[in-house]
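Sample entry (92 residues):
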Amino acid sequence: MRVCLRLPKRRCGELVAELDYNGTIRGFDGDPTRITRLCGQLRGMVFMDSVVAVEGLAEEVVDGEKRVLFRTLNEQGQPAVSNGIVCGRPGI
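Predicted structure, serialized as tokens:
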């Protein structure tokens, strides 16, 4: 699944909630307090007020922790974040 977002200044929790709402990160019920880790390798530039595409690549649950793999592309379609992973407590 792929979703495009405009990136104004926002906190990480707000971004995760929006990603969950748009279906890229499923299973966290739009609740950023469920997220325990968010990491990835920065690969390119993303400027404020630019549009990025976030792609959810895979999901798994290991020892009760949900893990979602993702990548982010900048407006030029180049990788901005690769090997991204969001970990947390699964939703109900």
